[in-house]
Amino acid sequence: MVRIKPQNKLAHISDEKSKGTNADRKKDMPIKFLGRKGRRMAKILERRRQAKRERTERRRRRKRAIKAGLEPEPIQTPKTIESMRRVETWSVDTEGVACMIDEFQEYYNGNVTPKILITSNRRPSYKLRTFIKELLLIIPNSIYLARSEFLLKNVVKHALNESFTAIIMVNQGRDKLPHSFHIATLPDGPTVFYRLTSLKLASEMVGAAYSSTHYPEIVLDNFTTVLGQRLGRQLGSLFPPNPDFEGRRVITFRNQRDFIFFRHHRYVFRSMEKCSLVEIGPRFTLKIRSVQEGAFDLVHGLYEFLWKPDLQVDRKRFFL
């Protein structure tokens, strides 16, 4: 009688583990056996590892130079779409802005006090009414006029008779949410149409500070072209030119890649050397759509600028 020796199960399991998975075997294979995709991925990973080693070595050299009292290597500026922006012929410098002659010259000379009329489309929704209430708190000397059944030309005529300097009309979309912005400077224009996105009301922000009646400080940042300076000067003309520094309110219009970001803060002095910002709200983003001559002359007014999808084919070309 022949006795069959039972197999060692533990040895069988150890043999399976020694073989390893398919991914482990592929990792240990030479590059020439990985296939086309595997070779390409291996080269990409090697370039990433090499770039990481170079960054680490640069940081070490900077630390050694600072420790030895020498001048460290300059930090490389990353390449972004903003830094690779194409310089256009309509760019303007700060000296050219100071001598600009346009519809806002009287305001910047201190001869005009802003008085703003805010209106909306007919039958505004609850969120649009809430947004208008917050705009009334943001913009001093602003008054809301319920549109009801008034025609737009009658609203413009009323604003001219009451010596308003600008009209802001906020529209809502099909979803009953604030959708767009019209800003018209009186009496001769221009009328600028913005698309309104990324709206977050102050009442929806957690931990937002309360607004005050002090006149705010205005920051217009990164408006580098003639069109950008024109829009920036119009936005600045909505607010009084003499801010109340005691209120510490700051309103920022920041242009980045032709998107105008609106922020409303109050700066707080923590000590003699440290200062922090507390957001008041709301926050939203404006995208320029058109600039038209005249005050709401939407039919016969000539377009100074009209946005089209074809204008954004080149990602390095900006208009503001």
Walk me through the structure.
This is RPF1, ribosome production factor 1. With 320 residues, this protein is of the alpha+beta class. The chain starts with 8 loop residues before the first helix and ends in a 14-residue tail after the last strand. It folds into 2 domains: 43-71; 93-312, Brix domain (Rossmann fold). It has helices at 9-19, 22-28, 35-67, 94-98, 105-108, 126-138, 152-161, 226-236, and strands spanning 116-120, 142-144, 166-172, 178-185, 191-200, 217-221, 249-256, 259-269, 275-279, 283-292, 303-306.
Helix share bin: 25-40%
The proportion of strand residues reads 15-25%
Secondary-structure arrangement, i.e. CATH architecture of the largest domain:
3-Layer(aba) Sandwich
Largest sheet: 11 strands, mixed
Helix and strand string, N-terminal first? HHHHHEHEHEEEEHEEEEE
Total domain units: 2
What's the CATH superfamily of the largest domain, by name? Brix domain
pLDDT < 50 stretches: 9-14
User: What name is given to the CATH topology of the largest domain?
Assistant: Rossmann fold
Report the structural category: alpha+beta
Summed over residues and divided by their number, the pLDDT gives a mean of 82
Tell me the Rg in angstroms. 30 Å
Amino-to-carboxy terminus distance: 97 Å
User: What is the general shape?
Assistant: globular
CATH class of the largest domain: Alpha Beta
E-strand count: 11
